[in-house]
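Data card: per-record layout.
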Amino acid sequence: MRYSLWRILREACSGHRRWEPAWRDASPKSGYEVIVVGGGGHGLATAYYLAKVHGVREVAVLEKGGIGLGNAGRNTTIIRSNYLLPGNNPFYELSMRLWEGLERDLNYNVMVSQRGVLNLFHSDAQRDAYVRRGNAMHLHGVDAELLDREAVRRMLPFLEFENARFPIQGGLLQRRGGTARHDAVVWGYARAASGLGVDIVQNCEVTGLIREGGRIVGVRSSRGDIRAGKVAVAVAGHSSRVAALAGLRLPIESHVLQAFVSEAVKPLIPCVVTFGAGHFYVSQSDKGGLVFGGDLDGYNSYAQRGNLPMVEEVCASGMALMPMIGRLRLLRSWGGVMDMSMDGSPIIDRTPLEGLYLNAGWCYGGFKATPASGYCFAHLLAREESHEVARAFRLDRFATGHLLDEKGQGPHPNLH
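The structure for this 416-residue chain is written out next.
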């Protein structure tokens, strides 16, 4: 069923009784050409592009719960491509271009809103760093504008410009950045992949990997053994746990990242804003709530909840940037499990075990990377070679020293 204005009017006349399910809730077959472990945005995007771009239709996506109930529904929805390093910038720009055509491609409203992303700076050194990043973006054909203090004041007059410790001096703006609806993205990819013949198997937890002669040939799951020519792992914060089923130890730590939503207010924040003197970012949802977040909780965890000290730190950063936020009530918070790599950049590569492929280590960048991650992972699975914009995301770079340390924090996953 294709969605359109005509379809909405037609179904309204029938009392909305003829709508079909968005995707097939399939039962697993005994075998597939490719099994994708993980039914989040990255896993579903991989299955979709395998079917659409490469013609691989014998694909199953195995999700231990329901579609949209994992990290995909636990983020702050920001999309951007304002990266510095040549190993990252082309990849995220590919993702941005895919975002720009995603709704038409999927025939699904994922609510992409290119309202802009503004990174504030508060010192001369930070300004120089943003000038460098903006120039790197221009060299890769990515839009970037350096705004002075008055230009920022015209956009966001309610910010605390005269803060004695953190005076706002300007900002780096990417107008093509913005937000998208997190769960709508996975629903859209699930629907489109299912329409191309992909089996989406919910409530199917992978409990083991089947190995024969040094090669991975399938998975053991809560719904039985399923064989496959290739097994692709895209399970975000649980990457280390699934890899351990094959005896692999990954250069990844899992941490909790909290996010928050305030009560609804009238339209206030026209773009996504990040605080340069502390880790705080905020945007406004279509329902009026302010959506914001900050740093990771500073301990390893697989729990989808955080602790009060980080709540206090995030709220303090918000107050330093825009004191009026203190008058708002906090409605809810949640936590997502982040797979933090040792250099803060992702992994899209084959593993040392033949037949097993890995998509992991997304740190804070998982949601914005969803389309390009699926596109490049599908390319790797179908062609046995890395896509040109993802060649730096090798697993062995931690052994060879070819790191992608975007923030320059060294081998400290919690700092990225």
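Known properties of this structure: The CA atoms of residues 380 and 386 lie 5 Å apart. The mean pLDDT is 94.

See the next section for split statistics.
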